[in-house]
């Protein structure tokens, strides 16, 4: 009787496996499992390649696939969506305001700065035609100073500070993108501060560039474009009320030389606290806002009174009969305080600038006090110069 041909080594390997020195048959399910795993990996890879390609195609301005429009919610996810929220559903871990927050809730005030007030009061009383309102809070000690800080005043360009906060709040909620482009239309072109007004109507700018110009060079046209992107006056005023601001309101586009847009020193300290304390923004957006504020080019008001080693992020305002500056200051000794000063005077009175600088200088000298060794700083360390 003929003997069956012996199986080759490769055939044996297909049917058996060596385990602990013993030969056992390969389980039937292992082949199915490995095959399914390979098929799944291939499918995921093809999906990533397809989605990336479609996103690149869509980013080039295509908004239709054949005759069918592509809605924003139907666009495939991209790698950026895992790093930055694109929709409201992706922001569940980002702090959101649950109710209007008063300044007292946000910054528990412990004791008034009576010694500082005694130094500042004579300065504000030298000229009855030059009046000052001031509000300051030391974030580390809880000390505060209120010198007419709740009085309603024309906001001038300081109104751009809460607009910047509102914009980055919308960014965290997926309502806007930093790289989206805004078109400068004729109704939004404004005189006064800024150079965007000299560009041709129809010029486009990225949202980040527009927001940066609004603060760094106080561009009025950029401000009007941001205001429009946020939904207009009524929308932002409702937002300000939700934050707990008492007197801050936008009534007209910039430059608003008559001063119809209003705020108060206390409201702007409130706004700065929402930024510095991280109440409304993600960590990344907070870093962006502070970076932009620290890049402000006008250094003639609050910064002129600061000492060596101090860092300030701030927004100025000036419409001739009122000047103001609101900022978050990190002192050379590691303290952090919030301060807003407004000075009302006759038109372009140089005494107004001098008084604001003096008030800033006295405040900094008082608040730049060395902490006891080992004392923690609740305000934390300043964020990086530029977000990654």
From TrEMBL:
GO terms for molecular function: beta-lactamase activity. This is Beta-lactamase. It comes from Gloeomargarita lithophora Alchichica-D10. InterPro entries: Beta-lactam/transpept-like (IPR012338), Beta-lactam_cat (IPR045155), Beta-lactam_class-A (IPR000871). Residues 375-388 have a biased composition (Pro residues). PANTHER family: BETA-LACTAMASE, SLR0121 PROTEIN. It is an enzyme of class 3 (hydrolase). Residues 367-388 are annotated as: Disordered. The keyword Ubl conjugation does not apply. It comes from the Bacteria. Its EC number is 3.5.2.6. Pfam families: Beta-lactamase2. Residues 134-342 form the Beta-lactamase class A catalytic domain.
């Amino acid at each position: 009787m003929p003997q069956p041909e012996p199986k080759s080594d490769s055939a044996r390997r297909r049917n058996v496996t060596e385990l602990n020195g013993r030969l056992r048959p390969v389980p039937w399910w292992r082949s199915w499992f490995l095959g399914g795993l390979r098929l799944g990996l291939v499918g995921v890879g093809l999906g990533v390649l397809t989605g990336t390609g479609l996103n690149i195609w869509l980013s080039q301005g295509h908004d239709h696939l054949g005759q069918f429009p592509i809605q924003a919610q139907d666009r495939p996810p991209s790698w950026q969506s895992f790093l930055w929220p694109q929709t409201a559903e992706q922001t569940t871990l980002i702090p959101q305001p649950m109710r209007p927050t008063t300044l007292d809730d946000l910054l528990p005030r412990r004791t008034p700065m009576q010694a500082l007030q005694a130094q500042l009061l004579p300065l504000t009383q030298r000229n009855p035609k030059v009046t000052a309102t001031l509000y300051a809070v030391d974030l580390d000690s809880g000390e505060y100073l209120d010198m007419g800080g709740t009085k309603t005043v024309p906001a001038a360009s300081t109104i751009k500070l809460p607009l910047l906060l509102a914009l980055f709040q919308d960014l965290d909620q997926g309502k806007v993108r930093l790289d989206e482009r805004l078109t400068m239309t004729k109704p939004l072109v404004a005189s006064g501060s800024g150079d965007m007004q000299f560009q041709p109507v129809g010029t486009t700018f990225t949202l980040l560039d527009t927001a940066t110009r609004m603060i760094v060079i106080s561009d009025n046209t950029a401000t009007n474009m941001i205001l429009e992107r946020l939904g207009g006056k009524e929308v932002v005023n409702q937002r300000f009320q939700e934050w707990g601001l008492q007197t801050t309101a936008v009534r007209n586009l910039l430059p608003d030389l008559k001063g119809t847009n209003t705020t108060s020193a206390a409201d702007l300290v409130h706004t700065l606290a929402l930024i510095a304390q991280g109440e409304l923004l993600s960590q990344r957006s907070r870093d962006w806002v502070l970076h932009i504020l620290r890049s402000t080019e006008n250094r003639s008001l609050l910064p002129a009174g600061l000492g060596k080693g101090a860092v300030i992020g701030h927004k100025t305002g000036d419409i001739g009969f009122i000047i103001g500056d609101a900022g978050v200051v990190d002192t050379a000794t590691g303290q952090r305080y919030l301060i807003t000063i407004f000075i009302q005077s006759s038109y372009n009175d140089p005494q107004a600038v001098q008084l604001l600088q003096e008030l800033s200088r006295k405040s900094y000298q008082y608040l730049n006090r060395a902490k006891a060794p080992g004392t923690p700083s609740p305000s934390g360390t300043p964020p990086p110069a530029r977000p990654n």
